[in-house]
Amino acid sequence: MNMDFNLFMNDVVRQARQEIVHAGYTELTTPGEVDEALNQKGTTLVMVNSVCGCAGGIARPAAAHSLHYDKRPDHLVTVFAGQDKEATEKARSYFTGYPPSSPSFALLKDGKLCTMIERHDIEGNEPMAVVQKLQDAYEKYCEEL
Fold first, then answer.
1. Bridge pairing between strands 104-109 and 75-80
2. Which pTM was predicted?
3. Which of 16, 37, 47, 54 is catalytic?
């Protein structure tokens, strides 16, 4: 039974990773990759991915659909909470003033945090409401394509 559960969870994690990468996000799995990505010039959207239902049913679809907009971040990256623990911890070190939250989104500009969309902003909402929150952030902080 336990082995079956582990295989199931490995499949869930693999699908969650593939879904966000397919949407155009670069996966960061080490603290070094996080530092390099989050200190790039321009705007960077970080999705803190997870295996919870609100990640799969709301956050990942919103992460993909929010990009269909006149303004969007220059860079799209993701870390996976509970899987790539050191990379996630490093990413969260940039989210000053916010407790750990997954799923969540952080928008940075030139390495500085602009805004966060936390789990409580995602969970219980429709995906389009989260798309709107993301696009509102793009409108405020990102350049026109």
1. unpaired
2. 0.92
3. 54
Q: Strand order in 26-27's β-sheet?
A: 26-27, 75-80, 43-49, 104-109, 112-117
pLDDT above 80 (res 114): yes
Out of 28, 37, 47, 52, pick the active-site residue: 52
**What residue ranges define each of the domains in the chain, with the CATH number in brackets?**
25-141 (3.40.30.10)
Single-letter residue type at 63: A
Catalytic residue list contains 114 = no
Model pLDDT for residues 11-67, shown as the tens digit of each residue: 888 899 999 999 999 999 999 999 999 999 999 999 999 988 889 999 999 999 999
CA 32, CA 111: separation in Å to the nearest integer?
14
